[in-house]
Automatic annotation (TrEMBL):
The chain crosses the membrane at residues 33-56, 68-93, 99-119, 126-144, 156-177. The keyword Transmembrane helix applies. It comes from Paenibacillus agricola. Keywords: Membrane, Transmembrane, Transmembrane helix. This is Uncharacterized protein.
Length: 192
């Protein structure tokens, strides 16, 4: 088999199913709620750091994706709950991030987590994640006229901008799939 085809199409992370099954059957309802609340709080803190600490905060704020990915592999319901709870927390902590999180880092986390859980291949996780991020960025740019990519990117409709944003979204999603795989393997070793 072609090594590149094998890289993209083989199941990515068998530990996802193990974590999902263990969380769904073994954990008490109280522990599930605490886990979701803790991960949502982490996501809100990471996302809000961008506004609280200019420069260094922008390097830390993308980490808000990781807790959403983890919650989503626990269960889709947990992922959606964490996503919504993070939005509520951001309303109190850093309201300026309310428009960015739901349509970028949060949406990316839901897409990658759900595709790792159900579609299981690297290619599907990268494509779903990139589509979620791409559509969120386009909504921010063209519907809300929010300069999510900085002032140099125009908010007037432009096909080359749309293509560049997709290429960026694809590579950013690929990076997050690999980061997610790494941490899922580490977490799996800890809980088993």
């Amino acid at each position: 088999m072609n090594p590149m085809k094998n890289y993209w199409l083989k199941p990515v992370c068998v530990e996802v199913s193990e974590i999902h099954t263990r969380f769904g059957t073994a954990e008490a309802a109280t522990r599930k709620m605490i886990t979701i609340a803790f991960l949502s709080t982490l996501s809100a803190i990471f996302q809000s750091i961008g506004g609280l600490l200019p420069v260094i905060g922008y390097l830390i704020s993308p980490l808000a994706t990781a807790p959403i990915v983890l919650c989503t592999i626990l269960s889709i319901r947990s992922g959606l709950t964490a996503y919504l709870l993070t939005i509520v927390l951001l309303f109190f902590i850093q309201p300026s991030e309310l428009i960015v999180f739901p349509l970028s880092t949060g949406l990316l986390g839901l897409g990658i987590g759900g595709s790792l859980l159900y579609l299981k291949t690297r290619l599907s996780a990268v494509l779903v994640g990139s589509f979620c991020l791409w559509s969120g960025i386009l909504l921010l740019l063209y519907v809300f006229r929010f300069p999510v990519l900085g002032p140099t990117i125009s908010s007037t409709f432009n096909l080359s901008t749309i293509a560049i944003v997709y290429v960026f979204s694809f590579f950013y999603s690929w990076l997050w799939v690999e980061i997610s795989r790494y941490f899922i393997k580490k977490i799996s070793k800890v809980i088993t």
